[in-house]
Amino acid sequence: MQIEPFLSELRDRIRHQHVSHDDAVLRELSTNTLGLERRILARIRPQSTQDVVLAVAAAGRHGVPLYPISRGWNIGYGSKTPVLDDCAVLDLSGMNAIREYDPVLGAVVVEPGVSQRQLHQFLVDRNAPHMMDATGAGLEASIIGNVLEGGFGHTPYGNHREHFSDAEVVLGNGTVLRTGRFPDLGPDLKGIFVQSNFGVVTALRLPLLPRPAHYESFIIRIDADAGLEALTDRLRQLRQEGVVTSCVHMANATRYLVSSRPCPPEFANTIITSPDAVRIMSTRLLKVGFWNAAGGLYGLKGSVSAAKRRMREVFKGIGEVRFFSNAKLRRLMQVTGKLDAMGFSTGRQLQQSLESFKHIHELMQGVPTDEPYRNIRWRVAEHGDLGLIWFSPVLDATGEMARAAVELARPLFRTHGFEMPLTMTLVTPDRIVGIFNIAFDLHDETQRGQAHELYYALKTRFSEQGIRTYRSALLGMTDLEYDEAKRQVLSDIKSALDPHGVIAPGRYAIDGRRGRGRNQD
């Protein structure tokens, strides 16, 4: 590895100020909520696809590994930090153009630095007849970054792994590839660039959702833990029928609590269970369930009304279903606001609950928000103290599998001394992604160790049952397992498209013929 000649070449060919190995810059790149440290060689901030081509070519000549990031907002999975030591971070946040907008077909072409805030404001400024799909990752999160991690949002276009096309990719061998729009001739190559390290994605095309004639969100409340199976099976049925087309998020009461308010002082030294969370959040007028599901209905007013009737029929005797239009939510907030102003404590509690739900209601209309990120601190005072790891198994969408995930995880969380906030999302009609939240004080060595132990215990226990994760944190990433044939094919692709092995070594445990990455956790 020849780092100085590499940096010197890039300073000559890319603007000098976009190449840095300042200690403060490198420390910030190594900061993450997992509590991992990495030795980083430099930061390169290309401003164009041609800059990326130059950086990849120089990396190959000098043997310097590059770790591409979009905006580095991969919180809970690793943020901006490389999988392995001794990489130069290729920071693509300066490539933030919305290259194209097609108001007829409803699509945009975006670069990696385009944030959720930027795309949403772009559409608002143009009074566009389309909306984006938004995630709960925050206003500054990259659109492309979430796509390439296989993330998901809330609307009918919420499965981001599927809803993109025509990726522009600088391969490790120097080729600039356009994967194309489909249907088209030949194989669709876009999928190989999700959760991989074959090249650097510099742009892609995203479909936009036409603004519906009518929209209503829904909340389903299940009052008993034992209702999880019925909730899961009924929602799968509704999605398979096409009655519900959005992603649907099912959460336990603990998840609702930790995402909506700070830890109550009386529980400062006590682990909060879901029954505790139900008591804390429920009021006489608004009760929170043990399990709660949220989704959206989109279409003509008549079709939405028909979907509401079908949902009430399906959940009769199982749980309460409530629906909220924009107008209804505004009216409720006005009433509770007046009660709060008059000094009624119930009004204040209702206002807090409605404020929390308002952000979910708007997310399902493509309006990004920082509210989930602001509230995620939970037991720490500052975001700089936040330790956070997501563990995210993927399951068949059956009540039996949803219950199995809960029962596998619950004793491990209890043993290691953590609350168990859990969301399970029907990303497709037949598949659920579970998101377990491991929150701790980043600067408390004991808590950090316990959190890491819990994460590995979850991975081991779920793997023993044949359950994989849909996405991986940096912890243990180099040890991810594929069946032998798939591992060999991925290795062959890596060797062909990145012959010098310089693109994101260790990412998703994909390595070429030069050998496999080191476990540095």
TrEMBL record:
Signal peptide: none annotated. Residues 36-211 form the FAD-binding PCMH-type domain. Gene3D superfamilies: 3.30.465.10, FAD-linked oxidases, C-terminal domain, Uridine Diphospho-n-acetylenolpyruvylglucosamine Reductase, domain 2, Vanillyl-alcohol Oxidase, Chain A, domain 4. The keyword Flavoprotein applies. Coiled coil: none annotated. InterPro entries: Cytok_DH_C_sf, FAD-bd_PCMH, FAD-bd_PCMH-like_sf, FAD-bd_PCMH_sub1, FAD-bd_PCMH_sub2, FAD-linked_Oxase-like_C, Oxid_FAD_bind_N, Vanillyl_alc_oxidase_C-sub2. It comes from the Bacteria. Keywords: FAD, Flavoprotein. PANTHER family: D-LACTATE DEHYDROGENASE (PTHR11748). This is FAD-binding oxidoreductase. It comes from Oceanidesulfovibrio marinus.
